Amino acid sequence: MKKFLTSALGLMAMFTGLNAQTAPAVETTPTFGIKFTGFVRNDVYFDSRQVVSARPATQGELLLYPTYMSNDMNGKDLNAASSFSMMAITSRLSGAITGPDAFGAKTSGVLEAEFFGNANGNENVFRLRHAYVKLDWPKTQLGFGQYWHPLFVTDCFPGVINFNTGMPFQPFSRNPQIRLTQKLSKELNLIVAASSQTEAFVSPGSSTNVALGASAANQSFLSNAVIPNLHAQLQYKTPTFLAGAAVDYKSLRPAFSQPSAVGAATNVSSTETVNSMSFEVYTKITTKPVVIKAEYVAGQNLYDHLMIGGYLAYATTAPAVYNITYKPVNVGSAWLEFIGTGKKVIPAIFFGYTQNNGADDGAVAAYTRGITLNKASLDKVVRVAPRIEVVSGKFKYGFELEVTTATYGSTTQTNGKAGGSMSEFTNTRGLFYTSYSF
Known about the structure:
Order of helices and strands: HEEEEEEEEEEEEHEEEEEEEEEEEEEE
Number of domains: 1
CATH topology: Porin
CATH superfamily: Porin
CATH class: Mainly Beta
Largest sheet: 16 strands, antiparallel, barrel
Shape: globular
Helix content: under 10%
């Protein structure tokens, strides 16, 4: 019996080995789907002064600059009051999507959301950040959906701890868009895009749709101009050096009608638009001990990018003619950053500067951020922000000291520039954060 079992096992092993040698190879099918990543982040921060914030309005997470003074009857500045906040609403979930080829191109996409909410008052609500699809051929890429505006260069933006990502010195906006990236050579790319506006990244105009109405911001002012926001950019990129230059064109229609005469209760149609051009240059240099990033923007009407400025309205009177026209406010903005290249401990420092350069004389209304005719307005904003981050696996924490000084004029000239006596107001933000990635 023992000999029989031994012989049977031997025959089975020989058959199995023969079958393994002669069985055909199994073809594997690429796996497509969505891979989720993200992080859980908590911010704890202290401000020495009340601040102007993009959002949330009451907690100042997206800090822009310190407020102007607000004196009581005894001359005490009510805005010289400190504040403290803790928030986890920047925690994020991202999905990287892969799928089969289409039209001879590799396909991919990204779907990303966070708990920041899409407007003041609905913080902690899940909101869309990116919903973007790409088609990649050997030398051409087409992108469709909501993604970073091309003025926000994903290869060269401030790495500050503060969730404001360098506002108001860095153009910051996410937009529905169509984007074409063409490889002109191994290192040189041409990027062209057409975009609209959404959510908080919108331009101001008349809330009544009648010229000179109160300012309100929404996407209709760009939509009603019919022409999308147009962009062109050249980018040179190697593993250790990046440089680029961009031009951006935007047209808004602030109102459908205007008063028929000065102070008239009747209105007539208005097709006036405000057209603006912005220019951007940037560079990134990577060395063994430090990474250096820098950018300069000569911008017009960049309100929708959470920068200072916007545009001014003018009333022109000729024989039997009354007309409202518009001019964009010019803003110059620059930032510089040095980042250590350590793996465990990463020191860095950020410098930012932005200047209100105004528009033409004679304005009668302002559709702007930081500028109010006949009242105090911004002249410039300066920031210095050293930081240090410590990394251990998927967990990291960091501390940043952000010192921002805003110079205000006590009044505003009719060209939108700050005038009168100049005063400086400084906010010091101490920020501690933790982040756990997955």
